[in-house]
Amino acid sequence: MHEELTPDQVSELTNLLNQQKLDLQQLLQDSEENSAPVTLDQQSVGRVSRIDAIQQQQMAVANRDQAGAILKQISASLDRVENDEYGFCLEIGICSDLGIWNLFGNCIL
User: Against a cut of 0.85, is the pTM above it?
Assistant: First the structure.
């Protein structure tokens, strides 16, 4: 059974999505340095340290990729809110309400 979201609920969800968007944008900006290519200067760093630096760089790149994907989902959700198409979960396939969104916080509405 689908119940329309109230204007207050839509406003609350929009505010939450906008805050998540800002947080992810800040995360991407902050992690830019960590995902830069690792300089392999054999004179200044030992082999184990270089391997560790490369692993950390690869993890930072993976985190940036994941954050970028979530940012795209949030932007798409905000577009659906703007076009009055928000509320149908693209993952679980039901018309949603605020309770469902709170239960499945990663639900793509």
Answer: no
